[in-house]
DUF1885 domain-containing protein
Amino acid sequence: MQENAYIKLVPASKQQTISIDEVKDLFHYYKDITNKTGSQLGWQYGESAFPYTIEEKSHAKGQWFYLNSNDKMRFRYIMVGVDNEAGSIPYIQVTLPEGFTHGDKGKANEFCKFLAKHLDAELHLFNGRIMYYYKRK
């Protein structure tokens, strides 16, 4: 059974719109900073922190992409997409498709928290809880 998490860009967020290319850039940034951490520590932390490749299918039409892993024992894949709610609130949807592993869910939670913190957004986790990464009054 698939599970979903949402990163919503609320009025207090750093930006009010997001594109799929911007989300890809954030994943590349995440991969870059974890590789730098690994080089400082003297081991391949980047491979462990981001065991996925970004793949976009032709029928995705710029709305979503896969994070696909080569290590099929521990990780398989995660889907990431962007859309707008009815009230025109933009959000990033992170989906764990059927057949996901515990490793996928752990990494998806980690990625969701990174994205929400970087964007000062509202994070709706897979378990239904909400985390607020923006300044509230």
Remarks:
- The first helix runs from residue 20 to 41.
- DSSP finds three helices and seven strands in the chain.
- Residues 89 and 111 are 20 Å apart (CA to CA).
